[in-house]
């Protein structure tokens, strides 16, 4: 993914209209900082850090050659943080069965009001559909949620991902999840 992919086509969901927009590190740092420092999020993202470090992290993501950060909005309200990446160019390729041109996705549901309602699965389905639609060379979308994060793993499964295997990554044991392109 590249910085030119600024917005996916809006997707109508039961909960409202969902869209992704590019992260602006200066404007979005406070929001992402608050989400990363939420204890429920921090347990799995391990990014409960000062605002300045979150701003620097967002700048690193924006400047990445293989990863693009987004803010997800429902009816215009920011409610999620996303990283969409080329898994075959990511360090993940050294730890799991990554294939050439695999797309990867990370998701953080920000405000707790958006968690535990089935929204994560709908969003993951919409974003993985978009990834497969816009990159004809990607045969699948992969993810690696922490195996302890059972709600996240279930959301991926409900979105059409399957557990391929468990893998060891620096700092966590992960469920390597795969959603294949279908005809």
UniProtKB/TrEMBL annotation:
<dbReference type="GO" id="GO:0016410">
    <property type="term" value="F:N-acyltransferase activity"/>
</dbReference>
<dbReference type="GO" id="GO:0019290">
    <property type="term" value="P:siderophore biosynthetic process"/>
</dbReference>
<dbReference type="InterPro" id="IPR016181">
    <property type="entry name" value="Acyl_CoA_acyltransferase"/>
</dbReference>
<protein>
    <recommendedName>
        <fullName>Lysine N-acyltransferase MbtK</fullName>
    </recommendedName>
</protein>
<dbReference type="GO" id="GO:0046677">
    <property type="term" value="P:response to antibiotic"/>
</dbReference>
<keyword id="KW-0046">Antibiotic resistance</keyword>
<feature type="domain" description="N-acetyltransferase">
    <location>
        <begin position="18"/>
        <end position="182"/>
    </location>
</feature>
<dbReference type="InterPro" id="IPR000182">
    <property type="entry name" value="GNAT_dom"/>
</dbReference>
<comment type="function">
    <text>Acyltransferase required for the direct transfer of medium- to long-chain fatty acyl moieties from a carrier protein (MbtL) on to the epsilon-amino group of lysine residue in the mycobactin core.</text>
</comment>
<comment type="pathway">
    <text>Siderophore biosynthesis; mycobactin biosynthesis.</text>
</comment>
<dbReference type="InterPro" id="IPR019432">
    <property type="entry name" value="Acyltransferase_MbtK/IucB-like"/>
</dbReference>
<dbReference type="Pfam" id="PF13523">
    <property type="entry name" value="Acetyltransf_8"/>
</dbReference>
